[in-house]
Each structure stands twice: as C-alpha cells, then as structure tokens.
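User: Could you go from structure to sequence for me? I need the amino acid at each position, not a summary. Structure tokens:
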C-alpha cells in the first residue's frame, strides 16, 4: 500500500479507435498521429501536459526516468543519457520530434540529456515494435515529441527561471502570437551547471567523501514553430531548432583526473504542407538535420570531429473511402552525408521507403489495423516489416482487449560499418518479431484506469562490438536475443469541488536474455541477462492539486543490473524519492507558478552505469511567469 501511495502523473491508455473519448488527446499535426490512427494493441504512456509544465526546468532523461517505464542509462548529470524500452538497446528506441527521427546516424541512438522539456508540448512513450510505422530504430518502441504553436488568438509571454543545487541555473522564455490565420511560437533557453556534487567513493580506500570534478555543462537553444492556414483546405507549418551544448566528462570513480570534454551542435528543420481533400488529406514534408560532435581528451592528445547532414522528403496520403476504413500510404527519401576523423573519408548514403496502413472499424466494436513497410538502403536489403493488430470493446468502452503481432528491423549504424579500426561492411540488418496482448479497463466515471500488457520478442542478428585477435573491438552479428515481460499502468483519482487527489502506479518486469550465440551453440552466455538491463522497474506516486496549490511525491525502484556479459558482476537496485510542491498566483494579466522540489530525498547512493557517480539530495526552485 505504501508503494501504491506514491504517484506518476502520466495518462495511460491502450490505443483506441479515433472516436473514443477516453484518450483526451489534443490535436497535434505531427507524424506521431500515424500511431494514433493506425496502431492497435499499443500501450502508450502520455505524460500529462500539466506535469510537463512543472518539469520545464528538466531535460527529457529526467522526466522519463520517473514518469515512464523507460530505463535511462545515465553517465551522470549533464552527461550522456540514453533511452531503453523493454530491455532492448538504446538504438532500438526511436526518438521522433515533429516527424523527424532524432537518433544519431553515427551511433543509432539519441541523447536524452540534450533535449530540454521546455521545448515540448507533448511527450508520449509508445511501447512495442513500430518499424512498420516509424521505420528504423523502433524495434522496442518510440518516444514521440511534439512542439506546436498555440491555437489561441493574441499574444502570450512565458518566462522561466530556475536555480538548483550544484551550481545549476536555467533561464528560458516563450512567446506565442496568434493573428488571424497564422500562429507563431518562439522559445529560447540558456542553462548552466557545475555538477560539483559530493559522493562517497567506495572504490577508494576508506570510502572518502569526494567532490565530482570536470563535470560542468552548458546549454543554449532556440526554437521557432510557425503555422499558417490560408483556408480550410490548406495548412502549412515550419519547425526550426538550433542547440549548442558544451559539457565536460567527469572521471570514473576509479580514476583521479579527467580533462575530457565534448561539444554538440544541432540544427533541425521541418516544413510541411497539409492539404485536406474529400475523405482524407495529403501531407508533404521536408526535413533537414545537421549535427556536429567534437570530442577531446587533452591528457591523451585525442581530438575527434564528426559531422552529419541528413535530408528527408516524404509524402503521406490518407484516404477513407468508406466510414469504416481509413487507408494510408507514405513514400520517403532520405540522404545522409557524414564525415568523421575515424572514417578516413566522407560517407554518403541514400535511403528510401514505402509504407501502407489500413485502419478498419469492424462490426461488434472491433478495430483491426494492418501496416506494411519496405525500406531500401544502399548496400543492404532490410526485410519487409509488417504489423497486424486488433482491439475489441466490451461492455461499452469500459473494457478493451487487444492483441498484436509485428516484425521490425535495424540497419547497422555508420560507426558499425565505417569506424577505423573495426568497422564491418559485411554486417546484416537486425530483424525482430514480437507478439503482445493485454487489456485496458476503466470505470464509467473514468476515475479508475488499468492498462496491462504482456509481450514476447525475438531479435535475430543482434549487432555487438566484441574484442578481436587484432587487439581492437569490432562489431558482428553475434547472437539472438529474447525479450519477454509484463507492463502495468494504473491510476485512481478523487475530486471534491476544486481539489483533486490522484494515485498512480506503473511497473514492468523484464526478462532479456541470450538464446543463441552464433557459431557456439554451447556458449556459457546462453540464458544470461543482457548488461545494464534491470529485471524490474516501478514508479508510484500521489498528488493533490487545487486552483491555488499542488503537491506531488514519487518513488522509483530500479532493479539490479549486470555489468558484464557472464553475469558475474552487478549494480545494486536503488530507490529514489522526489517531492515537489508549489502554488499558482495571479495579478491581473500576470500569472505565477512557483515550484519547489527535492530530488533523491533519502540521499541514496546509486549508479546507473558502473563507476559513474550520481548525485545525492538536491534542491530546485522554479518560477514560471505568464503574461496573456
């Protein structure tokens, strides 16, 4: 009961027919709407917009670590943080912003520590294979991010200021302007942190009290979102996002000094033209992504510069010839141009894909969806992937049962193929198959909700870097991996006049093991848990709110993780408790939201990556001012 009394403010639901009122989703013109139209039997955790607002001072990795079932592999505050769903590799989870896949062309993953929550209006975590809808990098699922312009006429200004422990501060602003047929949103952010926290270094004799060094981080970012609707049949939008990060890389707990640092710059642009036609619409989208990473280690005389340019053109056509069916087709072309000091030469790659989807509303309150996709990549032949799912409403919309079968793929990254030494041009794409089923249950007043999912997934040709006889590491298609488990998300709310009390619980049990090692059927690695995959994760929370104040507490439990392939060394489980409280104040057209929060209240000593120190208790105060 104690665990259940601690809460997560993220709305949970199984994917339902578009007309179902349980979703309460705001309309956002992004590609993730394809998931809402065509994905059946999908567990989706959407973080509540009010919760996003109270976490404006955080990065994406921080809010996902407590408000979702994603496991965040963090190297420390300000350092690299990756997202893992269902125990899979971070490269198996796609991060999509306004239709653009943010996963790195070099590593195949996204760094959630570089994504400020202040820039997003919607954050959703979609579980299960999504390759037939979102393409590469989504064997385990996807994180869908949306930034939109306000649909209200007039002008709105929002200013954010935050100060926290370990020399952290953040200043941000947002200006929304709506005039007639056009809407504009301009956002800017500046953040700095020393990250000079103290920890007990158990790797050193006497477990000395140690201050983290060489851990500073800096973020400067600006984003513009524009939308223009000249008439009821046309809608044009543009999204621009530039960000520059500088961060030092602290030493391992076993080391005494580090001078390493890394600078990341990214320019992202998306433009789309959506035209509504009879019984459907067409959507033309152009996207551009330019990324640069500079890494240096002065102590070893190492400097490395990596640059990538990615252009994308896609066209989606959605057509509903009859009331009971919705058909969708999409064709896309992508060009990647990359260079890295370790490649020896520029790399250029052309990709294309064709996809088809159908959403059918069948008799007896049953919905069925079918998706197909084929991607074409220079030098590779990824398999045709598909998904078939169905859900059925029972007893009105109070109970929905669903099932799904899907296949997926992952193309080897540029580093996998071109890194010198070790790159392997003979790698095969990974392929997967998965089955899942579950239910969504709610009462008539929608004050109680339960979502339950059970799944099983197999991944063939898993790519892993391993030592070679030549003395360096190289990637190879080494093994087959099985992932199976259960996921649960529940919430219960009580309302009385202007007050609301809400309890939430999300939990997962994962079993992710090697089932075959190619060329070695008697390998001792068969049956071993994958490294850094927790057996279980649980987040429970309770919150109370009114028109004047709010309070929230959340406890997250992360299970043990093995740090070596034979499963002989492990990191202990850890329990983190965060609390926050604040109030809402107004003065004429001015509105103020004051928030005080404490992270790691019990000052737990823990690690998410071996020998990487994590901070103890920290305090944060945030003031959000709004002028309408």
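Assistant: Here is the amino acid at each position, in order:
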């Amino acid at each position: 009961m104690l665990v259940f009394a601690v809460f997560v403010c993220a709305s949970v639901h199984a994917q339902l027919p578009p007309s179902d009122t349980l979703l309460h989703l705001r309309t956002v013109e992004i590609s993730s709407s394809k998931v809402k139209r065509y994905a059946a039997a999908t567990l989706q955790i959407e973080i509540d917009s009010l919760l996003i607002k109270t976490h404006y001072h955080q990065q994406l990795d921080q809010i996902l670590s407590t408000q979702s079932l994603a496991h965040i592999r963090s190297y420390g505050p300000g350092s690299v943080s990756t997202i893992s769903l269902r125990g899979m590799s971070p490269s198996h989870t796609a991060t999509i912003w306004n239709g653009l896949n943010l996963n790195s062309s070099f590593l195949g993953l996204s760094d959630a520590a570089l994504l400020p929550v202040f820039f997003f209006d919607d954050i959703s975590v979609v579980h299960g294979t999504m390759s037939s809808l979102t393409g590469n990098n989504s064997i385990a699922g996807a994180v869908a991010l949306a930034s939109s312009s306000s649909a209200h006429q007039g002008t709105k200004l929002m200013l954010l200021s935050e100060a926290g422990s370990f020399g952290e501060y953040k200043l941000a602003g947002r200006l929304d302007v709506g005039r007639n047929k056009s809407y504009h949103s301009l956002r800017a952010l500046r953040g700095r942190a020393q990250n000079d926290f103290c920890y007990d270094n158990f790797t050193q004799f006497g477990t000395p009290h140690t201050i983290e060094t060489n851990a500073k981080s800096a973020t400067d970012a600006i984003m513009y979102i524009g939308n223009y609707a000249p008439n009821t049949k046309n809608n044009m939008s543009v999204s621009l996002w530039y960000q520059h990060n500088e961060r030092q890389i602290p030493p391992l707990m076993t080391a005494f000094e580090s001078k390493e640092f890394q600078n990341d710059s990214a320019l992202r642009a998306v433009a789309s033209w959506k035209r509504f036609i009879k019984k459907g619409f067409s959507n033309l989208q152009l996207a551009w992504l330019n990324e640069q990473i500079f890494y240096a280690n002065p102590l070893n005389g190492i400097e490395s510069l990596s640059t990538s340019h990615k252009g994308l053109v896609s066209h989606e056509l959605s057509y509903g010839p009859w009331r009971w069916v919705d058909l969708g087709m999409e064709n896309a072309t992508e060009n990647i141009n990359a260079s890295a000091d370790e490649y020896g030469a520029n790399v250029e790659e052309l990709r294309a894909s064709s996809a088809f989807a159908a959403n059918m509303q069948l008799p007896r309150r049953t919905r069925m969806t079918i998706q197909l996709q084929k991607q074409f990549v220079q030098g590779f032949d990824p398999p045709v992937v598909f998904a078939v799912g169905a859900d059925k409403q029972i007893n009105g919309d109070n109970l929905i049962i669903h099932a799904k079968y899907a296949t997926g793929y992952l193309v080897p990254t540029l580093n996998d193929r071109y890194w010198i030494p070790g790159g392997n041009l003979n790698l095969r794409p990974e392929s997967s198959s998965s089955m899942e089923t579950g239910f969504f249950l709610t009462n008539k007043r929608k004050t109680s909700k339960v979502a339950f999912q059970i799944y099983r997934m197999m991944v063939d040709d898993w790519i892993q870097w391993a030592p070679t006889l030549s003395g360096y590491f190289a990637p190879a298609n080494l093994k087959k991996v099985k992932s199976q488990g259960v996921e649960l998300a529940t919430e219960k709310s009580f309302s009385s006049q202007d007050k609301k009390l809400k309890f939430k619980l999300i939990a997962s049990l994962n079993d992710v093991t090697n089932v075959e090692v190619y060329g070695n059927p008697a390998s001792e690695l068969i049956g071993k848990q994958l490294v850094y995959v927790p057996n279980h994760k649980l987040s429970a929370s309770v919150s109370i709110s009114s028109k004047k104040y709010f309070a929230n507490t959340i406890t997250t439990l992360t299970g043990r993780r093995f740090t070596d392939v034979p499963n002989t060394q492990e990191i202990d489980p850890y329990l983190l408790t965060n609390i926050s409280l604040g109030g809402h104040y107004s003065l004429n057209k001015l509105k103020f939201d004051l928030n005080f929060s404490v992270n790691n209240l019990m000052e737990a000593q823990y690690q998410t990556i071996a020998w990487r120190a994590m901070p103890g208790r920290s305090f944060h105060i945030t003031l959000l001012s709004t002028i309408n």
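One structural detail worth keeping in mind: The first strand starts at residue 10 and ends at 14.
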